[in-house]
């Protein structure tokens, strides 16, 4: 079965607070031919105001799914992009046009998740990091930000609409995000078990390691090779009892 | 003075009926750094509901101008694009991405007008033709259309935002739209005075001639050359008393 570029996209809204924005997002999905809508931090049923702005997109709201946490909402995705207006230290932020380029590098059957946070507060730090890439929609000023429903529509227009340049996928399909996260936890556990982490650098190393491997968008081959390399390298280096190893991964001023 | 790409854009809303959409359009303008908002068929002051959705864009609503007719609202523009979902016979419809390409062909100081019609009925036939080009935002299905505020935002994002590819303008600045229309009326009057139009083909010829010369986006040089050519050609041909000339411009089945 051939999955169309639009139908491989899922929109995940985390704790949206304005029902009209939910409806506007659904309408933008219908415009782009995207039907898979997921919620985190929202309880069914959706309020009537959401249906008022979901012109010709009521069916998308009816079919929406509700998840208790973001990890479950993106577990079946193989490529996850989180929307954020804020740049964070050490977390690269792609303009939307580059996020579109990244998606185009993968086979067009690759399931993609697009995550959008609360209108005022955006995504939490942990939710933001539960993605392969962070992206933002370039704008004239830091304030005002784009309306949530508009941001979803713009992103889908850029990803699925407009003039499409056909392109041969350059990469293999990645692992599902749940499998990517599991692999990252194994990498971190290996580092931890060999003394690479201690109380003062643990949070920093976990974040950096997570970020590096999420950006790699791991395939099954990648995971197996990296696990093998990790085991070999750590085994060899700890065999030398070099006490400075943990320190090398610490943040530098 | 160097006019930035965003500040050369003006948005003209013709008979919008939902105040929230006006506010959303203004917010999208602020996002893209565009400040020039014009109305046709709307009376000042704008309703309070428009300000509710114009987050951080209240100043754009305050500075908006009101015109009695579209011709006056676009008179100072040199390049006018009208948004429409409907294709009309003989009136080419550009996808948004191609409209962006057309704008990029002109010097970046060229004033551009972007015209959007009523949410349900769109632009009238005459208003639609009072533009150099008609464009639409590609979507998955003919219905639903994009929300008006979202359509403005998407268009401005494509024109002024996103990743800009620097480009050397290939064309001279055109006449103002008022001057272009005046030139077209002179061409039509010349054709009429020499018997090229009669009751059965007048509307058709006026529309085609108008469309052809609007698509040319006339410069001052263009106008002078065309006027000279017209006078010469018409003078020479009518001198030959060829009675079939009007018929050659009639629609053919």
What does this structure look like?
Two copies of one chain form a homodimer. With 253 residues, the first copy, chain A, is an alpha/beta fold. Chain A folds into two domains: 9-160, SPOUT methyltransferase, trefoil knot domain (Alpha/beta knot); 177-248. In chain A, 44% of the residues lie in helices and 12% in strands. Chain A contains eleven helices and seven strands. Chain A has helices spanning 19-32, 48-53, 58-62, 70-73, 96-104, 125-129, 148-160, 177-193, 202-216, 220-239, 245-248, and strands at residues 9-14, 36-40, 65-67, 79-83, 93-95, 112-116, 133-136. Chain A has a seven-stranded parallel β-sheet. In chain A, helix 8 (177-193) runs antiparallel to helix 9 and helix 8 (177-193) packs parallel to helix 10. Chain A is globular and about 60 Å long. The A-B interface holds A 6, 20, 24, 27-28, 30-34, 53, 55-57, 95-98, 137-141, 143-147, 149-150, 153-154, 157-158, 160-163 and B 6, 20, 24, 27-28, 30-34, 53, 55-57, 95-98, 137-141, 143-147, 149-150, 153-154, 157-158, 160-163.
